[in-house]
Amino acid sequence: MKSNITNITSAKGLQTKYCKGAELLLSGSVSYIKEQRNGHGKDAHSLLKDTTSCLVGQRRECAKGASTMLKKNVSFTTSSTSKSGWHNLWLAAALLVTVFSVSSCGLYSKYERPEVNTQGLIRNPYSATDTLAVSDTASFGNLPWRSVFTDHHLQKLIQQGLEKNTDLQNAALDVKKAEAQLSAVRLSFLPSVGISPQGTLSSWDGSKTSKAYQLPVAASWNIDLFGNLLSSKRSTQKQLLATHDYQQAVQTSLVSGIANLYYTLLMLDRQKEIVSEITSITKNTWDMMALQMKYGRARSTSVQSAEASYYSVLAQAEDIERQIREVENSLSLLVGQSGQHIVRGRLSEQMLPTEFSTGIPLQLLNNRPDVHAAEMALASCYHDVQTARSRFYPGINISASGIFTNNSGASIVNPGNWLLSAVGSLTQPIFQNGRLIANLKVAKAQQEKAYNTWQNAVFKAGNEVSNAMTSYNTYAERSKLSAKQVILYRKTVDDTRQLYKSSGSTYLEVLSAQANLLNAELTNVTDHFYRMQATVSLYSALGGGRY
Questions:
Q1: Residue 539: exposure state from Cβ atoms within 10 A (0-12, 13-18, ≥19)
Q2: Contact at 8 Å (CB) between 513 and 496?
Q3: Alpha helices (runs of H) in 104-227, residue ranges in sequence order
Q4: What span, in angstroms and rounded, lies between the C-alpha atoms of 457 and 454?
């Protein structure tokens, strides 16, 4: 991992050799411009042109020579009141273009995905030691949610949730906020302009009032030669992508959450039907034993036990009613409405896919929104490191101002005139109380942390896929076994009731058989539900939930 982090943090194309020829030409250009400020623009222009050509031809080897030269502090001030002032400003701009050709020698590169461990990412659900070897590149998670969840009641609920769920709406607002932040960062490349009109009325000892006015216009432009604004923009772009991923992750969670709660309601409805059927059986058993006691063929204890069994089943029915009400309230909240009855189908009518493909690990990385968001956070930290590095380099700023005024300082003149000025400055940080170095170390630590988080997100995604596939296979087998149990217990209940009538069985055997049948029926429904839930979990783990 250390080598991966080194590859991320190092600027691509940065060379170790000095571009001595370019450095000498640049130094000569600076000296020439400072000493020959007036009247030698043509010669200076030729020299700068030669310098630029040299640098373009040696871009790959000049980064360190540029760094050495740019540690020198160069500042100049000009005034438009003299013709040479504008000439010097033009020379300064040419020099800045030349310096830019040096500083852009591959110093700031774009983010490239580092290597991440995906070996054996998904375990084979049928083996304790093997991993899943996938040859099919299609993924179950790429299916639109309407193709997975075909129940029309469920589709209406999911569509309503996508339109009204507050968490998803807030995620969309976060995206808008990130887009606005990116727009602001992009505009930081442009000059800032301000205007502040002023007027003055003055009178000395009752004399005639003099009127003065001025209309100042000021502009300032921060020239991004060393990638400060560029790396900040790229970092913000990655943050925007991560926000989009978060929105998709919320949508995936919402779709799977609605589906799970809907299937939970169907399971509870089926359990309610089973309990109702068992209630009728236990009531008949109670009546039968009461009749047997009336004719002296049964004891009061058998009747009491049958009656208690009947009440126990009624209590289970009440508990299921409570669960149905709670799940309906939870589902109503997800779809953005107050708690109310949910119109739904039946558990036996549901058709979910039974054949799955997980796709290859790299596709899984791109498909999972949370995994991709973790990588975008890493990319953002990568550019934050570049931003921290750029703060070691000079800051170059050009300011210009124009004032239309009738106040010349000594007197008031009408009409007014324009006073124009321009200032260019280059500031090289030397000692900042250790803040620059500390900020760079913090940025590097954040980058390593983001890499670890991304790697863990990849492992987590693989675990969730493995768990969902194992769960599906397990409950598919359990459903088959519990269905066989139901058949046997139904026969046992019928046989023990007949034997009890002929005194061939005790009341305890009858009650036990009924209790076993109820448990087997409920277990079979639960196993079927868990298999459906595993399908939803696998769809979510593979990044499903798209339109």
A1: buried
A2: yes
A3: 145-148, 152-164, 166-187
A4: 5
Q: Please report where in the chains the tokens 């432009």 appear, as a residue.
A: 221
Yes or no: say if 432 and 93 are a contact pair by the CB < 8 Å rule.
no
Are the C-beta atoms of 19 and 51 separated by less than 8 Å?
no
Size (the chain), residues: 547
C-beta of residue 341 within 8 angstroms of C-beta of residue 328: yes
CA angle 13, 16, 17 (to 5 degrees): 110
Query: Could you give the CA distance from residue 121 to residue 493 in angstroms, rounded to a whole number?
Result: 48
Query: Helices 435-501 and 228-294 sit at what angle, rounded to 10 degrees?
Result: 20
**263, 532 in Cβ contact below 8 A?**
yes
Q: Which of 121, 235, 253, 110 shows the shortest CA–CA distance to 178?
A: 235
**Bridge partners (DSSP) listed for residue 341:** none
| Per-residue CA distances from 396 to 91, 280, 424, 439, 482 (Å) | 15, 88, 8, 21, 77
Query: What residues have CB less than 8 Å from 404, skipping those under 6 apart?
Result: 214, 215, 416, 417, 418, 419
Backbone dihedral angles phi then psi of residue 280, each to the nearest 5 degrees: -65, -40
pTM for the complete prediction? 0.74
Q: Could you give the angle at the alpha carbon of 260 between the alpha carbons of 481 and 369, nearest 5°?
A: 120
CA diameter of the chain:
133
In angstroms, the Cα distances linking 367 to 23, 139, 197, 253 are: 49, 9, 56, 14
| Residues in contact with 128: Cβ distance below 8 Å, sequence separation at least 6, in sequence order | none
Task: Name which of 190, 185, 188, 210 is nearest 200 in CA terms.
Answer: 210
For CA atoms 264, 265, 271, 275, the dihedral sign is positive
Q: Find out whether the peptide bond into 415 is cis, omega within 30 degrees of 0.
A: yes
Tokens of 336: 């953005």
Q: 522: closest CA among 271, 314, 311, 167?
A: 271
Q: Distance between CA atoms of 547 and 542, rounded to whole angstroms?
A: 15
Query: What tens-digit pLDDT sequence spans the chain (547 residues)?
Result: 444 444 333 333 333 333 344 334 344 444 443 444 444 444 444 444 443 343 333 333 333 433 333 333 333 333 333 444 445 544 454 445 444 444 444 456 888 888 888 777 776 555 555 555 454 546 788 889 999 999 999 999 999 999 999 999 999 999 999 999 999 999 888 889 999 898 888 877 777 888 888 889 999 998 888 888 899 999 999 999 999 999 999 999 999 999 999 999 999 999 999 999 999 999 988 988 888 888 877 788 888 999 999 999 999 999 999 999 999 999 999 999 999 999 999 999 999 988 787 666 766 667 889 999 999 999 999 999 999 988 888 888 899 999 988 887 767 888 888 888 888 888 888 888 889 999 999 999 999 999 999 999 999 988 898 899 899 999 999 999 999 999 999 999 988 888 887 777 788 888 889 899 999 999 999 999 999 999 999 999 988 888 7
